[in-house]
Write a structure and sequence with these properties.
It is built from no helices and eleven strands. 27% of the residues are buried. Helix content is 0%, strand content 55%. With 121 residues, it is mainly beta. The radius of gyration is 14 Å and the shape is elongated.
Length: 121
């Protein structure tokens, strides 16, 4: 019943910016980490950025210095600010959550449906 819904994708010119959002619904006991993945045409899905429960972040080398991951716990929303976008950033971006739904139960992963980002002039 836990769901992640992405939004904010669209068409943008190279050098432009977009802000993706991922809103969580449903009851969750705890969240270990959340992340953004992307899958470009003809390529495998890759990790873009992640943020752990303590707030520490990690980024793929390809987006370091350009993308920023953050979250608003009160709004139950994860964000990905994307600046200086390049054509190679074109992909479907997916929100991912590593969480525990019920106390003492094993961790599980939940995925959003994805939002398309197209960077083209």
């Amino acid at each position: 019943q836990v769901q992640l819904v992405e939004s904010g994708g669209g068409l943008v010119q190279p050098g432009g910016s977009l802000r993706l959002s991922c809103t969580t619904s449903g009851s969750i006991f705890s969240t270990n980490a959340m992340a953004w993945y992307r899958q470009a045409p003809g390529k495998q899905r890759e990790l873009v950025a992640a943020i752990v429960s303590g707030g520490r972040t990690n980024y793929a080398d390809s987006v370091k210095g350009r993308f920023t991951i953050s979250r608003d716990n009160a709004k139950r929303t994860l964000y990905l600010q994307m600046n200086s976008l390049k054509p190679e950033d074109t992909a479907i971006y997916y929100c991912n959550a590593d969480l525990i739904i019920i106390a003492h139960m094993p961790r599980t992963e939940v995925w959003g449906q994805g939002t398309l980002v197209t960077v083209s002039s």
